[in-house]
Specification:
The chain contains 4 helices and 6 strands; from the N terminus they run βααββββαβα. The chain has 145 residues and is of the alpha+beta class. The radius of gyration is 18 Å and the shape is globular. It holds the Pfam family YCII.
Length: 145
Amino acid sequence: MRYLMFVKSDEETEAGALPTEQELADMTAFNERLVKAGVMIDGNGLAPTSEGARVLFDEHNTPIVVDGPFTKAKDLVAGYWLVEVSSREEAVEWACRAPLGPGGQIEIRRVLTDEDFGDSLTPELKEAEARMRDAEARRREELSR
């Protein structure tokens, strides 16, 4: 099962504060443990919301773009890990090992699979998804050369 572990933001990360050398070393060591265990798929820090935007859709499905920054830093995301583990409990165990320090917070969410969508995900839609994922994988492969 795949889980997305969101590192919650705070006032410092939203102000653009970057980790110290020691914090980066601690995070690198944690990431290396995830990789050695074979569970890490991806992970990154995110720029503050002052560099971002939100797209909201009104009652007529018209998109409305709202530029950051956004309020309530504790409800925002500062970074993430995408992991593949055997259970929610294993994802929680990994999150508990993260070197975030006092006040740090990680939200854990399971990534939905085709089976979660039941009959709504028709064979045609599954095929379209597979084609898109294959095309994206080929694009990334070409970029990495």
